[in-house]
Specification:
single chain; alpha/beta; five-stranded parallel β-sheet; 5 strands; 9% strand
Length: 334
């Protein structure tokens, strides 16, 4: 019963949808199988000490009420933006804030208010606020844009709140008021992964509430090719409270340290080849190291191997989980 409850919470957290019993069981089986395969060993994490300290400082300053800055984690493909944030949030050990993690998907980019609906839903759940206890004005906008909060789903049942037809400026004002109301009840750390795929309406809202410094701490990841365009959306006063953490590729000495931990007594020429072929990119580097463990030479590594390896090594449980996920993102799988 406990495992079923945990699984249900995980699915609500990830999808903000009430899962069917069969899907809960399948999802739980996939999680348990993955945990068994991973074993008790902690995931390998190397470097980024400067970035981890910077995340921790902003987090602690925010919690204590001191002057703090929101952070944008910038880097190219495979630089470790997502993994850095995930590793920090799992291991920070800082209590007193409610952490909300959101992921922006390319397939959902054109769904207006998608990310904002997840954010508001997660805030209400974190505070254990029933929508019935909210003022009517807030309930009206929530049922109109986020109907899953009021029953079985967007297409099931009838709400006791009538659909609103509010002017845009009034809607924006009410959403901002609701955000302020919720952040006044707790300190929130809001982690948004890959902001470039955020829908436009949610994007504008996030940009706007970043001005309300002190109510929430934002950790946002952004592909470096899009960073300049993203920063243009902020006014100068808001930018004063935002710092950029740029993730660069590993240096040769860092590649050597990683190889020494992941491979048995790597020769200098092996380290040189690893650095040359990967360019110090964390994703490529670890994929090449994994190829070496399969007795494949470094210079035979191609980018396509990354895709092939990731798909071929999926277990039947993971393939089924991917298939379930594809039901929500039609562009992933027919």
């Amino acid at each position: 019963a406990f495992r079923a409850t945990v699984t249900k919470r995980k699915m609500l957290r990830d999808l903000m949808l009430e899962p069917l019993k069969d899907i809960q069981n399948l999802y739980r089986a996939a999680l348990l199988r993955k945990k068994a395969e991973r074993g008790a060993a902690a995931p390998f994490f190397f470097g980024r000490l400067t970035e981890l300290k910077r995340l921790s400082r902003s987090h602690r300053d925010f919690l204590s009420g001191s002057q703090y800055t929101d952070l944008i984690i910038s880097g190219g493909i495979g630089s470790g933006k997502t993994y850095l944030l995930s590793h920090y949030m799992r291991n920070s050990g800082i209590k007193g804030t409610k952490v909300l993690e959101l992921v922006c998907y390319e397939a959902e980019r054109k769904i207006e208010y998608r990310v904002l609906s997840l954010l508001i839903g997660k805030m209400l759940k974190a505070l254990k606020v029933d929508t019935k206890d909210l003022p009517e004005s807030y309930r009206q906008i929530l049922v109109y844009f986020f109907p899953f909060m009021f029953g079985k789903g967007a297409h099931d049942g009838q709400s006791d709140v009538k659909d609103g037809n509010l002017p845009f400026f009034e809607l924006e004002e009410l959403l901002s008021e609701l955000f302020a109301r919720l952040t006044a009840r707790a300190k929130f750390v809001i982690v948004i992964d890959d902001i470039r795929y955020c829908d436009r309406m949610s994007f504008d809202f996030i940009q706007r509430v970043c001005k309300y410094h002190g109510r929430a701490l934002f950790f946002i990841s952004c592909h470096d090719s899009w960073l300049k365009e993203y920063l243009k959306t902020f006014d100068k006063n808001t930018l004063r409270n935002i710092d950029i953490l740029e993730l660069k590729n590993f240096r040769r000495d860092e590649v050597e340290a990683i190889a020494s931990r992941r491979l048995k007594d790597p020769a200098p020429e092996t380290v040189d080849a690893l650095y040359k072929e990967s360019g110090g990119n964390p994703l490529y580097l670890f994929e090449i190291i994994n190829s070496l463990k399969d007795n494949k030479p470094v210079n035979n590594y191609k980018f396509i191997y990354l895709l092939e390896n990731r798909l071929k090594t999926l277990s039947s449980y993971e393939q089924m989980a991917l298939y379930i996920s594809s039901a929500f993102f039609s562009d992933i799988m027919p």
